[in-house]
Specification:
With 356 residues, this protein is of the alpha/beta class. The chain has a single domain, classed as Alkaline Phosphatase, subunit A, CATH 3.40.720. An 8-stranded mixed β-sheet has the order 5-4-6-1-7-9-2-10, with helices on both faces. A 3-stranded mixed β-sheet has the order 8-3-11, with no helix packed on it. It is globular, with a radius of gyration of 20 Å. The termini are far apart. InterPro entries: Alkaline_phosphatase_core_sf, Metalloenzyme. This is Periplasmic protein.
């Protein structure tokens, strides 16, 4: 009996010894938002172009004389609270670079890279609904006994159950047009379920981000998970459709979701003072504003260029990074493991954690 007990301790000892059960992490992905808008606000050429709908109201709402003023109008929470209390990486004008390492430069490969800490161009080379053969950081954390059933994912795109491999990982994924399920639904979840079926989405595979956002917060209130992934998707789909006004409005709405989420975290004793928020995007977009901004992929210049934001617990308040640096999104998954003090799991990853 003693030998069996000793064997068990040897197998799970590193997890029991290292894990930080007080740590909470929110990983946010904002699909296809260009670093150009994040750091400079509305693009002058796109605002002035008459081919894009709603340009007069768009100009009045988002145009200001300087990049600093324009970005403040577009994403006020990012450029007020986070800029003072966190870190914002990826302003290439200032020499701060954040890049993808995969060569596909579209969504599934981008998310795989973020979640697993490495690119896999050989096997992850389409957006098809096929279960990810790679193990994500969400699955790793969910398999630690003390975090079992304390990991959740919410996404507007209906491919996330496959990217995270919900079937194998055991991580619940509410994505696409899925509703909240269970016998303990809150009144708000019941309302969201009803409303989602009544409000048509412009797209067949992506729901509106408001549903993703509120489903996530309701789950956080009920179950207090330690690791939550929230994937907003509207910005990418509006961009593909060439609707620059909707793209900017969606970015501004998502910024308000960030603020709402942070205010909830600061009001909840389980999360207050114990939560780190990491944000990034799955790919960039073209840099030629009148054409390629709508697209991304291996043949589009600038699609590799992304950004990274961090704030909350254990994040140094460095603000906007104005010095030369090179970061990669492959560093995000190892960073999550490091924050949970699961160093032994990092040997699976090719890159080092990001310095926060």
């Amino acid at each position: 009996m003693k030998r069996v007990f000793l064997f068990i301790l040897i197998c799970i000892g590193p997890f029991l010894k290292a894990q930080n059960t007080d740590q909470k992490i929110i990983l946010i992905t904002l699909d296809g938002l260009r670093w150009q808008e994040l750091f400079s606000g509305a693009d002058e050429k796109l605002v002035a172009n008459k081919d894009y709908r709603g340009n007069e109201s768009l100009k009045e709402k988002f145009w200001r004389n300087t990049p600093e003023e324009r970005r403040q109008v577009l994403m006020p929470f990012v450029w007020s609270y986070i800029a003072k209390n966190g870190q914002i990486h990826g302003n290439r004008v200032l020499g701060s670079k954040v890049d993808l390492t995969n060569n596909m430069l579209f969504s599934y490969p981008g998310y795989n890279e973020i979640f697993t800490g490495r690119a896999d161009d050989e096997r992850i080379n389409s957006n098809s609904k096929t279960n990810n053969v790679n193990t994500t950081v969400l699955e790793i954390i969910n398999n630690v006994p003390q975090f079992k059933d304390k990991v959740f994912s919410f996404g507007s795109w209906d491919v996330f159950p496959f990217i995270i491999n919900e079937q194998r990982s055991g991580v619940p994924v509410n994505a696409g047009f899925e509703t909240a399920k269970g016998e303990d639904l809150t009144d708000k979840e019941k309302f969201l379920n009803e409303l989602q079926s009544q409000i048509p989405s412009p797209w067949s595979s992506v729901r509106l981000d408001a549903f993703t956002h509120h489903y996530a917060i309701e789950t956080m209130k009920k179950y207090h998970p330690n690791l939550v992934h929230i994937a907003y998707g509207e910005t990418d789909d509006f961009a593909h459709g060439g609707d620059y006004a909707a793209y900017l409005n969606s970015a501004q709405n998502t910024d308000a979701f960030f603020k709402d989420l942070w205010e909830f975290i600061e009001s909840d004793p389980f999360y207050k003072g114990q939560t780190t928020i990491l944000m990034t995007t799955d790919h960039g977009r073209g840099t030629e504003p009148l054409k390629e901004w709508k697209s991304h992929g291996s043949d589009i210049e600038g699609a590799r260029e992304v950004w990274f934001i961090a704030f909350g617990k254990d994040v140094k308040p460095l603000g906007e990074i104005k010095s030369k640096e090179q970061l990669y999104t492959t560093g995000i998954a190892p960073t999550i493991l490091k924050l949970f003090d699961l160093e032994d799991s990092q040997k699976e990853y090719m890159t080092e954690p990001l310095e926060l």
